[in-house]
Design goal:
Radius of gyration: 15 Å
CATH superfamily of the largest domain: 2,3-Dihydroxybiphenyl 1,2-Dioxygenase, domain 1
Strand content: 25-35%
Helix content: 10-25%
Strand order of the largest sheet: 1-4-3-2
Largest sheet: 4 strands, mixed
């Protein structure tokens, strides 16, 4: 089994797609106005309107209510990426910081309030599973 994607449900697909295109530096595929995908080498961020999950009724995800998940991007240089993005970040949660376990992280919220982490691993442990 392989993880295919993480899908974020949003009332504004265009705004969130533009935000993640800016963060990743990649263009999204837009197979429909209500859906976008940004495919990276190891996973996909899917961005979709509530219409795409309407058939779930009361069990459907509600946009902007997530407070348990962090969208994480492994980068080579956290400080450089944070500097590149700083002008578009409205809600910085943690400026670039070295964590006690050695990862370097910067955390911010996307336009819908989802937490995003840019992180790099310490040079001596390239396969470390720790994030944040």
């Amino acid at each position: 089994m392989n993880l295919a994607s993480i899908r974020i449900i949003t009332p504004d697909v265009d705004q969130l797609t533009h935000f993640y295109e800016t963060v990743t530096g990649m263009s999204a595929a837009r197979p429909a106005p209500v859906f976008a995908e940004i495919q990276t080498d190891v996973g996909t961020i899917a961005i979709a309107s509530p219409e795409t999950v309407a058939m779930l009724g009361g069990q459907a995800p509600r946009p902007g209510t997530n407070d348990t998940t962090i969208v994480e991007f492994l980068v080579t240089d956290v400080d450089a990426e944070f500097g590149r993005l700083r002008h578009v970040l409205e809600n910085v949660v943690l400026e670039p910081t070295t964590m006690p376990w050695g990862n370097r992280s910067a955390l911010f919220r996307d336009p819908d309030g989802n937490l995003v982490n840019l992180f790099s691993r310490p040079p001596h442990s390239p396969s470390s599973p720790s994030h944040v």
